Amino acid sequence: MTASAITRNPTSQRRIAFATIIGTTIEWYDFFIYATSAGLVFAHLFFKPAGEEIGVLLSFATVGISFLFRPLGAFLAGHYGDRIGRRAMLVITLVLMGVATMLIGLLPTYAQIGIAAPVLLLLLRILQGLSAGGEWGGAVLMAVEHAPANRRGRAGSWPQLGVPLGFLLASGITALMTGVISPGDAYLEWGWRVPFLLSFVLIIVGFVIRRTVEESPVFTELARRGKQKNVPVVTLFRRHWYLVILAALVFAGNGTLGYMTTGGFLNRYAITVQNLATTSVLVAASVGAVVWFFSTLAAGYMADVIGRRNTFLIGFALQAAIVFPIFWLVGNGGLPGLYFALVLISTSLGLTYGPLAAWYAEIFPASIRFSGVSITYAIGAILGGAFAPMIAQMLLETTGSTTAISTYLLTASLLGGVATLCLRDRSGIALEADNEAEQASGATMFTSRAVAQEFSGKR
Question: Locate the Major facilitator superfamily (MFS) profile domain: which residues (predicted)?
Answer without folding.
Answer: 16-428
